[in-house]
Amino acid sequence: MRELTSAQCVIFDFDGPLCRLFARRTAASVAARLWETYVPHAPRDSWPHTPDPLRLLATAFEAPSPLPRGTAHELEHSLTQEEIAAAEGAFPTGYADALVRTLGATGRRPAVATDNSAAAVERYLAGRGLLDAFAGRVCGRRCDADGPRLKPDPDCVRRALEATGTPAADAVMIGDSARDLGAARAAGVAFVGYARNDRKEAELRTAGAIHVVGSLKEILLTVDPLAHV
Predict the structure, then answer these.
(1) CA distance 220 to 166
(2) What phi and psi, each to the nearest 5 degrees, are found at residue 144?
(3) Quick one: which of 95, 119, 99 has its CA closest to 110?
(4) Per-residue DSSP letters for the chain?
């Protein structure tokens, strides 16, 4: 993985590569609460039946929108609060903390580019003693008047590059979904897939990912072959 050894900036997706955000407060339960609160305001057949709260959020802003715009923004705020609460019980991905610290120790700049809220990411990182490692470089979901710019839109990846002052050619992204890969490609950033199971690996391979690892230990040892793991 030559991209990793030469990268000056390593951009992490959050939910997956750094932690399992919904390990205890599950994504399905969050989606169910959003459904119960907001679906009564719109025709039920206009909503996807999904355990993915981000898909519900995207639907709330799609044209023709099933929700009044103000209500859609309320849904986004509710999701942010759910994510912050989930961050309290998120489960760290193996070797993620060590990788982040090693990147900093070897002069590389870590950043986060995620569809989750920056507030949830910062809550999690603070709890792990890692917030300073990402100071000013947590690029979470941005939701403007037209709605959220979610991956594969490269918005958050480009903001991560700007926050680190790094050209795209000198950066690499670690992600666990086809959407992550699409966003990295659109931003001109190299990509390494993290797949914690066979389903994730198949999704990434089908999307065209060349480098896929089953453990961040592989990335850690690429960055620092002498790391004590």
Answers:
(1) 21
(2) -100, -165
(3) 99
(4) -HHHHH-SEEEEPSBTTTEETTSSS-HHHHHHHHHHHHGGGS-GGGS---S-HHHHHHHHHSSSPSS-HHHHHHHHHHHHHHHHHHHTT-EEPTTHHHHHHHHHHTT-EEEEE-SS-HHHHHHHHHHTT-GGGGTT-EE---EETTEE--TTS-HHHHHHHHHHT--GGGEEEEESSHHHHHHHHHHT-EEEEE-SSHHHHHHHHHHT-S-EES-HHHHHHHH-TT---
Task: List the one residue out of 125, 128, 94 whose CA is nearest residue 112.
Answer: 125
The torsion angles phi and psi of 110, rounded to 5 degrees, stand at -80, 150
Radius of gyration for the alpha carbons in the chain, expressed in angstroms and rounded: 17
Q: Rounded mean pLDDT of 33-37? A: 91
Asked whether 141 and 150 are in contact (CB, 8 A), the reply is yes
> Which of 5, 14, 209 has its CA nearest to residue 130?
14
pLDDT class of 224 with cuts at 50, 70, 90: confident
HSE-up (13 A, CA, CB side) for residue 112: 30
Q: Which of 130, 139, 120 is nearest to 53 (CA)?
A: 120
pLDDT tens, residue by residue, 103-118: 999 999 999 999 999 9
pTM for this prediction: 0.95
User: CB–CB of 227/220 below 8 Å?
Assistant: yes
Distance from C-alpha of 122 to C-alpha of 133, rounded to nearest angstrom: 11
Q: How far is CA 23 from CA 127, 151, 219, in A?
A: 16, 22, 23
